[in-house]
Amino acid sequence: MTQLVVEGLHKSFGAFAVLHDLTFSIREGSIHSIIGPNGAGKTTLFNVITGLYPPTHGRVLFNGADITGRPAHALAALGISRTFQNLQIFLNMSALDNVLVGYHLSCRPRLLPSLFRWPAVVRRDHEYRQRAEQLMAFVGLSAFVGAEASAMPYGALKRLELARALAVQPKMLLLDEPAAGLNPKETGDLDTLIQRIAERGVTIVLVEHDMRLVWAVSNHILVLDEGRKLAEGTGAEVRHNPDVVAAYLGEGGRHR
Amino acid sequence: MSADLLQFLVAGVTVGACYGLVGVGFSIIYNASQVINFAQGEFVMIAGLGTTSLLAAGMPYAVAIALGVLITVLVGVALEALAIAPARQSSVVTLIIITVGASIFLRGAAELVWGRNFRSLPPFSGAEPIALGGAVIQPQSLWVLGGTAISVVLLSLFFAATRSGKAMLATACNPNVALLLGIDTRAVLRLSFAIAALLGGIAGVLIAPISLTYTDVGVMLGLKGFCAAILGGLGNPFGAVVGGLIVGVTEALTAGYLSSAYKDAVAFVMILVVLIVMPRGLFGAKAGERV
Amino acid sequence: MVDHRRKGTRGLVLLALIIVALPAVIPNAYIYDVVILIGINAIVCIGLNLLIGYAGQISLGHAGFFGLGAYASPLLSDRLDWPPALALLAAAMAVGLLSFAVAKPILKLRGHYLAMATLGLGIIISIVLNQEGQLTGGPDGMPVPPFSLLGQRAEGEATWYWIVGALLLATVWLTLNLVDSPVGRALRALHGSEVAAAVTGIDVLRYKIMVFVLSAVLASVAGSVYAHYAGFITPSEATFFRSIEFVTMVVLGGMASTFGALIGAALLTALPQVLTPLQDYQMLTFGAVLVGTMVFMPKGLVPSLAERLARHRR
Fold it and tell me: What is the value of ipTM here, to two decimals?
């Protein structure tokens, strides 16, 4: 079943157009990669889908509902979650608290019960703490449960962000360059992790430059170039698409 | 045009020109560093009070004015070196608190030096009012308008024709690129405080003969100058001048026709309305802080 | 974080003990007065710290809310003959509503723009209090009827000491609860990264408004208590400088630390009183403290000392 539909999406900043008339769809439960050179508009696309930027025109449908221009927090409530290319960690909090913030929507915190520390609040908080610790173990961060986020290494922070995004209990998870800045060892089990997340029934949208990871996990690949769709299909289809070969893979110097 | 209205307009334009000069200072520092200098109004106060003391010490008026403004520039440079530069990498909230603290510090220091009394400067040239279509103009008003006009012209020449001025423009456009081009953005910041203090100082001595000067004079002038800068579009120095004139005239008309008690509230209501309705101001090229 | 909570509880118990024990060593009414003022300022600062320290927003106009509470409560009890306790609550609610109404447009602004907007708001309130002379007595101020609850009149420093002490303890308790709850986490999260907070489902604007209103209501309650205690109120309680005083206390004590705000309030309320020769230097000192703290110890006293202590133990 189709989960996300992007229709005629256009985004410009002033006179500068980043996305041109982009149309594609993503199937529920798939691992859908979006690739393209730097500046192709991948992160902007993520920002529009997750409600951080309104599109200039065009529509975004999620599970059949028009979500164009809805604010980010409302989209999170619908089940869209993401990580960031340039890490957006709450550095003023502990690692566990970062993940706990991800459970914000499940907690539905209210002011008065929180002020007076009603027993129900304490009980539920305890429950979510345990779930957050399990989630940290799932992404391989058991060692950091008691750590302050500001004291963690870069690779661990990337996983922490992933755990936080999972705590939102997304139906669709957008990963913006999860392998960027990681050493080969750290990248190593990322493909298994992504596949295990997908097995939980979460649709994955992956923006990534590490082609090994892309080929390993993707069911479907969309190639962007200068804000336009260059090609899409399975890995094999995309790899043999003459346009892609010419514009993207052919020019070795243009892309690492 | 009725004589009343003309009189109000003259008063509004005169004081508005000073708000404009203060506003230009806000914009210049903002361009160099994305910092709003809450101590901007204190420059006005220091120049005015400094000049009264120098004059009282027996100096010729012109020398006293020049020295008064010079002292203000030195204070501006010291402020940058001692309070802003060490905290360049801090968060916005931290920088706000620093400049607010600096303004309180300067006011406290001024109270120790000059006490809490009101002081005044004599007009630059005679006190004989000039009649104009039923209204009267103080000669000092002409000094204010002329001084503002000359300052603005010199400033635009500085931006257009000197290396330092161009470096400041480049830094305003994009600090990172400016750094790559080899521009010393640290020096630009220092220079921006010097120029902002200079303009504030000029406003201070121009306005002192009309409205008395005292240690708290900078609070209102500073805030109204900020209103001018916001109205003109923060980061657009010449927009700030227009913004200042609008604030001054609105204030004078409110005082004249509606309520003199709430004259001072005008600028603050304008700040709120402008920030909420059109945060980019009238001529703002730059948006507010990005998400 | 369990550790965090235990530390908070320990602090709360310590504070209660200090409040209970202090009267034994307070020698005279003058010191009582200073301690009561510390308590009142601390309540404002603890609320303001939720906004500045935890949520990372700024307000340069909170003395306005303090002033509104200070004037509204006596006006309601005097002119409308309401019981003072009811008047105090009504004033707090009115300030809550007012701050809610202005919060929505204002808190969309960030950084410097927010600072200027709150500053403008505070000054407008202060101008109104000065100008509406028939209601407020203008710059000369107005007398305030004594406070009474269930027919008992609150009189004398000792009585007020217990009232303010109890209020302070309640404020600290509620604040510690809030900070350690999902709401408190959401506030710290939007301070850490607004974008990340939004994509994890936090309605950033709603939380900013919530904490702004909460801090305004606390300031209003503190203002009402101050007015009834002092028996006289002037617009000087609502000035820009008063707003800056509150911010200085928060910043010196330590941002994002409830006990820091308390200690900041204690130091900066007591110092000018104890060192009377410093009175003339008050502005100078406050300015220097603000700049110095931000440049050399941006986290403030309590968090910096706590960090040093933790490093020492290791």
Answer: 0.90
